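Subject: DUF4136 domain-containing protein structure
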Amino acid sequence: MKKYLVLLIAVLALSGCGSNTSIVNSWRDPDVTVAQEQFKKVLVVALVKDEASRRITENRIAASNQIFRTSYQFLNETTKHFTQEQKLKILQDENFDGVVTMRLVSTEKETNYVPGTYTGMYYGGFDGMYTGMYGYGFGNWYGMYSPSFYDPGYYQETTSYMVETNIFSLKQNKLIWTGTTKSEYVTDLGQTVDAIMQAVVGEMKKDGSLPK
């Protein structure tokens, strides 16, 4: 991992309304916690090829807390040819003390078979079954069996997105927390970012990086 970070990262060129997101694994520096760092100004970095997705991701995270600032304000076309040292100097001059990065690690596709379902309902009680079948013709027979339907099974393909979230201390110039999340049934980038951050915060509370 590069000594001078101004790093990259990030998330999903995904699309559209909610996702099921969970922590796959995480690690924290045993000697320091996020809470102990007491960050006052944190850069949010999302490295994606699509500039629109980058801005959606960074804006979404920045909107969650006033200490966050989007990286595209400071690291953009005008600075892309700068050295690592020059980029780090920008952050030092702007008094950043932390960096949160997101990076899409991988996508996985799974195909699952969803079994068919049978729904049926019986009207009229036990006695009605015989009177319906033998005494009152098609009307009662249809009334007894017509609510019974079969929905055939089908194959469903789902895509899972593995996203790595890192937290760096610029004061100590090192990684202090990292975690990987898995998001499924993704339909909206903004809501997925929210879900990732919620999972990350929950995990940091569990491992003691943040107070519960």
